[in-house]
Sequence to fold (635 residues):
Amino acid sequence: MVSTVARRNLCDTRQMERILGPTTVIAGLSEPGSVQVDDHGDRLVVKALVDLDGLANGTFATTTVGCAFEPTAFAAPNVDLVGFGYTQFALPLRAGPGGGFDFAPAINLDSPPAVLPLLLMSDDGRCELLAPLDAWHEQVISVEQSVVDGAPRIDRFVWGWLGDLDVVPAGFEATLGIFTGTSVHEVFNAWGSSIRGAAGTTRPGRYVDPLLTHLSYWTDNGAAYWYRTEAGKDITTTLSDKLAELDALGVGIGSVELDSWFYTHEVSRPVSETGYLEAVPPTGMLSWKPRAEVLPDGMAALRKALGNRPLALHSRHISPTSPYLSSGSWWVGERAAMPSDFAVLDEWCRDAASWGATCIEQDWMMVAYFGNEELRAQPGRSLAWQRALDQSATNRGLHLLWCMALPGDFAATVELDRVMAIRTSDDYRFAEDPALLWIWYLTVNVMADSLGLPVFKDCFFSATPDGGTGDATDGDQHAELEALLAVMSAGVVGIGDRIGRTDANVLSRIALPDGRIVGPDRPITIAEQSMADAGRSAGLCWAETETTNEHGTWRYIVVINTSDDQVVRSDTFSLEEAMHVYWWRDGTATTTAELTVELAPRDWALLVCCPIPADGGEPIVGDTSFYVTMSAALP
Fold:
């Protein structure tokens, strides 16, 4: 079976009218009585009554059995939609009233016309979330669209078994929960609480790994030393010199991430001197061992050069031509192979622990899934390899970081004990418009937060460009905003600076000198009023998080002008009750229940909203040298 989550009614019971309205059962099977499709109001269930074979129709996003929602159920002019796409990092897709989803956005993605979860927001104050209660990797909401006057329009949604599911045992069920409420966070938290409660989820905790507690140094895509070195230096010397510089600057680094440059792929890109590189070919791993030409003295010598700091090690899907496939059992696809037994994953975790790693970053999860048709052919296979890796990590005392995860991978973490954090936006500097990544991160954080997961926005540069040199590894004009968003993750915070290009002042606002991250209690998430539009066509993008202690709750509100129309924008945000508001950038303060902010394009504001003491005493702002002025990391 695909899931061990208990079968029970977990959804909201207030009987609010469903925005989507009634469903129509659809079935692509010729045998009557082979499946049962039920609409229970707060959940939809598809169950196999007999063993089924030959179901696959060759199209992932064309469901074989399930329920359809016709246009009259959702096409009212007052409903906005947000769907989480089946591509890396669950790309959030938005559709306004009467419109459709853009499955080919201005970024290099490969996304089928499918979403899950699906959020609907009506201007009468109702919210509805359709999200899986089990069968995380086997169900999907297909989006059928047409083009009207050059723009997409949704014709209908169809929920059910994905079109690649081929062999299903009798008794297999897929269940879609329908959560209704009056706010986005209410319905997401209801879903997250339901599936976490049913699974008995136990998260590793916020302080279990140095990647979560301390500033880290990264060598992944977007960082200065991703397949790059400084001129005249090898990768070991380059990284050791950079860490020595950070030590001299008083910037504490708790761990170092080694990306895919350290092991061999089907097509391995050379590690060369600093300069712009095209994307590394997305081919699979051949062997998860140090490349002799890159690390001739092995992993132990590299770690010693890095001051024996703990390591986070990148991993990816396995090539179908890997020598690993000569033993054990495997699910093999055109682009990726994944083990169906424990041995190779346990070998990886054993090696990682011996090399001084505390965390494995499992990357390219999208390719592991879509590049392997055998994983999608039968229920439970995707979850099986993830459980095996989770168990191996448990046995070796390691933790896991999910990267390039699909929506089903997010939900499946409720059944895994060692996934300590998840990436929630695409690679740093990957998009031509950086605001696309900021919005992506803030939106997907809503889903991750509801699942109890700390997040990671990817690494960033701490310094602005040096004299306009044009070097792609030199700096970022939005460095301070990137640092602010990163520390508000309540999770991993990593820099990827080049030698000579670290702004220690910026980093002093997010971490103590020993590297301890000064962060909030939970990930920053996009605010209710920004969910539908994210400030792209009207208003500003608002996001918030918080810190709570015995004295009350401090709210941190980040406001960004994400529009790309070069217009100065003004917008207002309600706090529901009066708070002492500290404007972090100019140091002024006021007591108010309503915030009004005006920002130029790509400008930002940070507002620290402090509780007003019941005894009439002076409100406490905290340590304003940090973005998060009240944090568990501060004395």
In short: The CA atoms of residues 129 and 179 lie 5 Å apart.
